[in-house]
What does this fold into?
Amino acid sequence: MTNSERLRASDDVVAREVGGEMVLLDLVSGTYFGLDPVGTRVWSKLSEDGASLVELADLIEAEFDAPRDRIEQDLRDLLAQLSEKALVVPA
It folds into this structure.
């Protein structure tokens, strides 16, 4: 994924917040995927109108206390997992 490539939540995913965390259900495979509070915030943004890595990093940096390089690496890892499981698609 490039820094400017935009992703969005797949239409085949149902998401529900439970106790401050997001639970995703892929309707195609029937598998569940859980997100922590930061991942929940990322998912909310991807569900609204999609976002790029840079936009997500800006959002997380403004809302959470962590170094920018760690934020970007964690986002790359998360987005790779979500993409691999087809939970996010190009916007």
